[in-house]
Amino acid sequence: MVNFPLTAEQKELQALARRIAQEHLRPRAAQIDRDATFPVDSIQELGKVGLWGLTIPREYGGRGADMLSTVLVIEALAQECASTAMCFKMHLEAVNPLAHLATPEQAERFLGPIARGELFMSVASNEPATGRPMQSLAKPVQGGFYIDKAEKAFVTSSHYSHLFQFLANHEPNAPSPTAFIVERDKMECSVQGEWDGLGMRGNDSCHVTFSGTIPNSNVVGSIGGMADVRKFHLPFVFLTYAAVYLGIAEGAFEEAKRHVTGRTFLPAGRSLAQVETVQRYFGEMMVSIDRTQALVYSAASLADRGAINDLIPFQTASVAGDETALEVTNTAMIVGGGTSFAKRNSLERYLRDARAGVVMVPQDDLVKLTLGRAVLGVS
Known about the structure:
Layout: H1 8-35, H2 40-48, H3 67-78, H4 82-101, H5 104-115, E1 121-124, E2 139-141, E3 144-155, E4 163-168, E5 178-183, E6 188-192, E7 206-215, E8 219-220, H6 226-261, E9 264-265, E10 270-271, H7 276-304, H8 312-341, H9 347-354, H10 364-376
Parallel strand pairs: 1-4
Antiparallel strand pairs: 2-3, 3-7, 4-5, 5-8, 6-7, 9-10
Helix pairs in contact: 1-2, 1-3, 3-4, 3-6, 4-6, 6-7, 6-8, 6-9, 7-8, 8-9, 8-10
């Protein structure tokens, strides 16, 4: 789509992700969606080619990829299977603070095995009751922190992950939570139920209750230091969400293109691609995708240059990705017609997958409110 300048290494990673997406994600995507099963095989393929360690520094065995490369990889995966892309995105999101702040001991215990495809991560930060201070408490005890039945909601890859980035207060009403690494095999991690979503049906985003002791050596950064982590972590969160939903839009666009170029419009005997209304729809979809892709890539390039203090470019990119996915998948369903509603192609899957963006944390309504207040100079 957009002819954005890429380095040889960025092109190489993009090509690798596209190959994996075509060869491994695309053939499995429909069944993952139909059965609401976690994409184990697809995720493992990503580990085999070293992408679990995409953002881990090379000195620890990772690929040391920059932000734009990360966006390119996630975008390519989401074009073929949004569930796999989201699970992988949440893995990278969980790894991100550790990749920046790991002690030498943590790097050896965690970063090396992650880069080798031995440990997979996810994020356990959201709680069942939103709109109130964090309830999870990690009480200081000898040698570490004790948590007792701390509940986390919508934990992606909940049954599969070996490690979790876990957020909790170290004392009641702490001004900022602490980031911990929870090792599944050393804690009691009780997963409630099975994931059954409208879209993103392979995400395995279940509630998880955590109990046990987290050793001092599993603190990421400092006690109560999540506020410091957020300055580099939030741009990553916003941009990787944007990449998923941009990829969904592109996947729907390509599926709709295959559909209309391969269908004959009777009784005129013309291809659907020759119908002017269809042509206009494709022009609209292309404009929407191109402007969002340019915005997301530009924001990622800003992050790579260290311009991360102003969150507006990253927040804008995230909202744009969500809204483009909604717009394009809806239009793609229109040009797909009854065939799409009968589930004879993947357009309705893209439509359902796109619906998650506006409600996933951070919700678009809240982000727009933040953007508006920033522009107007009000609190």
